[in-house]
Design goal:
Elements: H1 12-15, H2 18-21, H3 27-34, E1 41-42, H4 55-69, H5 83-92, E2 100-104, H6 106-117, E3 123-128, H7 132-138, E4 144-151, E5 154-155, H8 157-169, E6 174-179, H9 193-205, E7 209-213, H10 229-237, E8 245-250, E9 261-265, H11 268-281, H12 287-296, H13 300-325, E10 331-332, E11 340-344, H14 351-360, E12 363-364, E13 366-367, E14 380-384, H15 390-408
Parallel strand pairs: 1-12, 3-4, 3-6, 6-7, 7-8
Antiparallel strand pairs: 2-9, 4-5, 8-9, 10-11, 11-14, 13-14
Helix pairs in contact: 4-12, 6-7, 6-11, 8-9, 9-10, 13-15
Domain Aminotransferase class I/classII large: 62-400
Protein name: PLP-dependent aminotransferase family protein
Keywords: Aminotransferase, Pyridoxal phosphate, Transferase
C-alpha cells in the first residue's frame, strides 16, 4: 500500500480506556533506569542478591523436571497450577490444594485480586505508607482509599477500630484491607502479635476482606516468628471456607525472582474467580518454571538460611553506618527481616527533589511519597540493603549523609 501522508492520524490518547488513564509508571522502575549506570550505588530496587541464587540447583532442577515429565514440561498446563507444588504449599497450612492458586509473580496475584474483588468506588484500606506496587495493581479498578496510621508495631488497630465504627455508623462499608505484616515494604516494620489478633478479629466482625501480602515472611533474621494473619483467620473461623483472610506469597525472595512463581490462598469462591481471571490473563503460569520450583523445594530450607544470614549482616552494617554518619534528626526503622528500612528526615527536606543531588554523588534510593495512597511522606525514603556489599554500603551511606546535610544547610 502506498503511504498517504495526508491520511488522518488517530488521537490514540482519546481512545484509551478510563482505567488505562489512571495508570502510572512505577516510581521504582523509573528510578532503576538511572541506577543501571555502573558507577551508581543503588539502595533503590528491592532486588534479591543475585550472588545468592542457587544456580547449580536451578540447573539440576531444570534437568530433573525435563527428565521426569518429558514433553509435558513444555506443554500447556492447567490454570490452577502444577499439582505437586500446590499440594506442598497447601500442606503448610493444612488446607486443601484446591484452595491454592499459582500465579505468575505476586504482582499478578494482586492484579487478579483487584480484578475479581474491586468495583469502581469500593473502599480499600491501606497502611500509610504501603507497597506502591499494590496501589499500582488496584488503581485501574478505580477504588477509593483510606490510609491507616502506622508506628513501630505496625498498623494502629485502635485507629482502625474507630474508622470501621464510624463507617458503620454512616452506613458505609470498607471492601478490602491490604496489609504486609512481616517486614513491611517499604518500612521494614513487623505487625506485633497482639495487633495481628485484633486486626483479624476487627476485619471479620465488620465484614472486611483482609489481603495478607507476605513475600518476606521467611526472611526473619532477628526476633521470634509470628503466626500469619491467614493462620489466625483459620483459627478464628475454624476452617478455610469461612476464612476472610486471603494470603499471598512468592518464591521470588527465597529462591529466584526470574521464574515468577507465587501463589494465593483463599476460600473457594475467590479461588474460582481467580482461575477465571487468570485464564483471561495468561492461561497459566509457565509449566517448566513451576516444575523447576517444585524440584528445588528440598533445598529451600538451606537457601532461606543462607539468604537470612546475608541480609541480616547487610542490614546491621547499613544501620550502623547510618547511626555513625546521618545527621541528628534523621530517624530510621529497625527491621527484623526482609529487605528494607525506612528513613524519616527533618520536615523541610523533600526526598524527591533531593534524589537528583544524591545520584550526582552516585547513590540512589526511593523517595517515600509514592508509597502513600493519599499523599504525604515528602521527607521519607526507602533503602534496600539486600543486594549491596559492605563496601557499597560504606560509600553509599556516606554519600547519602553528605546529601542530607546539604539539604539541611
Amino acid at each position: 500500500m502506498t503511504p498517504n501522508p495526508s491520511a488522518p492520524a488517530l488521537d490514540f490518547d482519546s481512545l484509551l480506556s478510563k482505567r488505562a488513564k489512571t495508570m502510572n509508571a512505577s516510581a521504582i522502575r523509573e528510578i532503576l533506569k538511572v541506577t543501571q549506570q555502573p558507577d551508581v550505588i543503588s539502595f533503590a530496587g528491592g532486588l534479591p542478591a543475585p550472588e545468592l541464587f542457587p544456580l547449580d540447583g536451578v540447573r539440576q532442577a531444570a534437568g530433573a523436571a525435563l527428565d521426569k515429565y518429558g514433553p509435558a514440561a513444555l506443554q500447556y498446563s492447567t490454570t490452577e497450577g502444577h499439582p505437586p507444588l500446590r499440594e506442598w504449599i497447601a500442606a503448610r497450612d493444612d488446607i486443601p490444594a484446591s484452595n491454592v492458586q499459582i500465579v505468575t509473580g505476586s504482582q499478578q496475584g494482586l492484579d487478579l485480586l483487584g480484578k475479581v474483588l474491586l468495583d469502581e468506588g469500593d473502599l480499600v484500606l491501606v497502611e500509610a505508607p504501603t507497597y506502591l506496587g499494590a496501589l499500582q495493581s488496584f488503581q485501574p479498578y478505580l477504588p477509593r482509599y483510606e490510609q491507616l496510621p502506622t508506628d513501630e508495631g505496625g498498623i494502629d488497630v485502635d485507629a482502625l477500630e474507630a474508622l470501621l465504627t464510624r463507617l458503620e455508623q454512616e452506613g458505609k462499608q470498607a471492601k478490602v484491607l491490604y496489609a504486609i505484616p512481616n517486614f513491611q515494604n517499604p518500612t521494614g516494620r513487623t505487625l506485633n502479635l497482639e495487633r495481628r489478633r485484633k486486626l483479624v478479629e476487627l476485619t471479620a466482625r465488620h465484614g472486611v476482606l483482609l489481603i495478607e501480602d507476605d513475600p518476606y515472611g521467611e526472611l526473619r533474621f532477628s526476633g521470634e516468628a509470628l503466626p500469619s494473619l491467614y493462620r489466625l483467620g483459620l483459627e478464628l473461623h475454624g476452617g478455610v471456607e469461612k476464612n476472610h483472610v486471603i494470603y499471598c506469597s512468592s518464591f521470588s525472595k527465597t529462591l529466584v525472582p526470574g521464574l515468577r512463581d507465587a501463589w494465593v490462598q483463599a476460600a473457594t469462591p475467590i479461588i474460582r474467580k481467580l482461575i477465571q481471571a487468570k485464564q483471561g490473563a495468561d492461561l497459566h503460569t509457565p509449566t517448566l518454571n513451576q516444575m523447576i520450583i517444585t524440584e528445588l523445594l528440598p533445598i529451600l530450607p538451606a537457601q532461606i538460611e543462607k539468604v537470612k544470614k546475608a541480609y541480616g549482616e547487610r542490614a546491621a552494617h547499613m544501620m550502623q553506618r547510618m547511626d555513625d554518619l546521618f545527621p541528628r534528626g534523621a530517624l530510621r526503622t529497625t527491621p527484623q527481616g526482609g529487605m528494607f528500612l525506612w528513613v524519616t528526615l527533618p520536615g523541610g527536606i523533600d526526598t524527591t527533589a533531593m534524589l537528583e543531588r544524591a545520584v550526582s554523588r552516585q547513590v540512589a534510593y526511593v523517595p517515600g511519597s509514592p508509597f502513600f495512597a493519599l499523599g504525604g511522606g515528602q521527607n521519607t525514603m526507602r533503602l534496600s540493603y539486600s543486594s549491596a556489599t559492605p563496601e557499597q554500603i560504606d560509600r553509599g551511606i556516606a554519600a547519602l549523609a553528605e546529601t542530607i546535610r546539604e539539604g539541611l544547610d
